[in-house]
Amino acid sequence: MSALKVNYQELLVITKNWGWFLAWGIVFIVLGIAAISAATIATFISVVFLGLLLFLGGVVVIVDSFTSWRQKWGGFLLHLIMGLLYLVAGLMVIYSPVLATVSLTLVLGVFFIVQGLFRIIYSLTIQLLNWGWNLFNGIITLFLGIIIMANWPEASLYIIGLFVGIDLLFCGWTYVMIALSARSFPGPKAG
C-alpha cells in the first residue's frame, strides 16, 4: 500500500510540474539532434570529458591515498598506484582523443556483440514473459556491434557521438511523453 502512495505522490509532483518535464524534454531533444548532426564533435567532447573524469578521479584517489597513509592504513601504496593509473589514463585520453576514440569504439563494438549474443541465448533458453522483446533487444544489440566492427576504425570518429545523440534524443522524447501524460492526468496543476 505504501508503494502505491509513493507512486501516487510522485505522479502528483510530476503532474504539478509537467511544464518543466516538457521543457527539459525539448532541451534533450535539441541536444540529441545537435549531437547526431555533429556526431564527430560530440564524440570528441564525450571522450575528452571522460578523460577529465579519469584525471579528476585520479587526483581524488591520490589525495585519499595520502590521507590513508597518515592514518597508517596499509592500502596506501595500492591506492596511490590506482590513482596514478587513473591520472595517466585521463591524461592519455585528453592528449590523444583520436586514439582514445578508436580504442573505445573497438571496446564498444566487441561489448555489443557479446552482450547481444548473451541476450539472444538468455531469451531463447529462459523464455520469461514477453521473451520476444528480450530476443529483439539482443538481435538489435548484436546488429549494432556488427555494424560498428564492420566499419571500425573509420566509424570511430562519429559512433560515440551518434550514440550519445540518440540517447539524448530518446531521453528527451521520454520526458515529453511523461509531460504530456501528466498534463492530462486529473490532479493538481501548477498555478
Architecture blueprint of SSEs:
Elements (H helix, E strand, L loop, with lengths): L1 H15 L1 H20 L1 H32 L5 H20 L1 H30 L4 H20 L8 H25 L8
Helix pairs in contact: 1-7, 2-3, 2-7, 3-4, 3-5, 3-7, 4-5, 5-6
| Shape category | extended
Instruction: Determine the number of helices (DSSP H or I, runs of at least 4 residues).
Output: 7
Oligomer: single chain
User: Which residues sit in consecutive blocks of at least 5 with pLDDT less than 50?
Assistant: none
| Biggest sheet record | none
Backbone CA Rg? 22 Å
Structure write-up:
With 191 residues, this protein is mainly α. It has one domain. Helices cover 85% and strands 0% of the residues. It contains 7 helices and no strands.
